[in-house]
Q: What sequence folds into this?
């Protein structure tokens, strides 16, 4: 990985300007490269298996009673993990799994205890979309599409959805294999989107549309620290993956730039790394600013913390379980969802939902 020198406050400078450098811009000389030769790969202690034999799991949501809802991408099912067992909640109609598309992200309403509303990001026959449901503890009912028209393809479908501290729903999308989507403000592809719980456009969105930020290749991780700063992980093409600090209206460069461009008008990432070392999917952010990163090709979980000088060098906090799709902070534990039944080499018990102590 590569660590950006300078303080987080200095990132505001990067939003000014109007031109871009082409993709493949050399990495600036004043940033450090990770992983170093001495980077450790150590299995986490205190690991507990919460569920096994999950078929292509993609995302999770923790219910108020501590049980966990998990989406199964290809089966288009939601299952519930509780008391050491897994039960089927519902098959989700209207899902058209193919390639990286299918039943993807899940998020609970900020007022779930009162309204019982649950949101799913799914690939339909025509698009990617966000659909709202009511969950009564036994089944999903009253499907209501609240955001449609997100481009779909065999890959780069994005899929993570999370409610922010402002109560709005943030949606990470991919460019659907068409890089030009990322810079097209009329397209919902290659963006981070922001809508109200009913799917309306918030009045303070930067472009009077659902678009919150643009120039993204494939966003699959979203999370906030206690100050309300939004972090997002993004798949690179063949040079650099990214961890970004997201601001409304920011242009994150794709396809003009991949990784650190140092170009006016483009926002440089906080961290970059070679796709073979990470390929980040979900992230989880603690109140104190530690970002946990689920790595697919890298087959590990990394942790990096925001400081006044930028982000700390990432540490390996979990490996040995193969590909990792999602992570979630739950009290003083980290929940980890593996992803070996899709492109990896399944092992006995795969795929699994495990928990381990926060570092």
A:
């Amino acid at each position: 990985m590569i660590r950006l020198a300078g303080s987080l406050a200095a990132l505001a400078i990067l939003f000014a300007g109007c031109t871009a450098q082409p993709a493949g811009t050399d990495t600036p000389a004043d940033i450090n490269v990770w992983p170093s030769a001495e980077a450790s790969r150590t299995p986490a202690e205190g690991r507990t298996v919460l569920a096994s034999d999950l078929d292509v799991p993609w995302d999770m949501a923790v219910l108020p009673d501590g049980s966990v809802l998990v989406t199964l991408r290809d089966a288009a099912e939601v299952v519930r993990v509780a008391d050491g067992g897994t039960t089927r909640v519902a098959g989700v109609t209207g899902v058209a799994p193919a390639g990286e598309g299918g039943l993807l992200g899940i998020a609970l309403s900020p007022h779930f205890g009162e309204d019982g509303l649950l949101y799913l990001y799914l690939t339909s026959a025509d698009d990617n979309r966000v659909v709202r449901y009511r969950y009564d503890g036994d089944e999903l009912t009253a499907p209501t599409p609240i955001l449609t028209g997100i481009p779909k393809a065999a890959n780069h479908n994005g899929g993570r959805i999370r409610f922010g501290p402002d109560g709005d729903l943030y949606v990470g999308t991919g460019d659907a294999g068409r890089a030009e989507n990322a810079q097209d403000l009329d397209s919902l592809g290659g963006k981070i989107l922001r809508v109200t719980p009913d799917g309306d456009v918030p009045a303070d969105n930067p472009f009077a549309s659902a678009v919150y930020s643009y120039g993204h290749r494939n966003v699959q991780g979203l999370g906030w620290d206690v100050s309300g700063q939004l972090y997002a992980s993004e798949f690179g093409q063949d040079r650099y993956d990214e961890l970004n600090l997201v601001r409304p209206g920011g242009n994150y460069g794709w396809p003009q730039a991949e990784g650190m461009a140092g170009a006016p008008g483009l926002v440089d990432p906080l961290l970059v790394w070679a796709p073979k070392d990470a390929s980040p999917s979900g992230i989880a952010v603690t109140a104190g600013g530690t970002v946990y990163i689920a790595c697919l090709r890298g087959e590990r979980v990394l942790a990096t913390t925001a400081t006044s000088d930028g982000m700390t060098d990432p540490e390996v906090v979990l490996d040995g379980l193969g590909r990792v799709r999602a992570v979630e902070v739950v009290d003083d534990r980290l929940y980890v969802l593996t992803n070996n039944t899709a492109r990896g080499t399944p092992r006995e018990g795969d795929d699994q939902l495990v928990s381990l102590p926060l570092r």
About this structure: The longest helix spans residues 112-115.
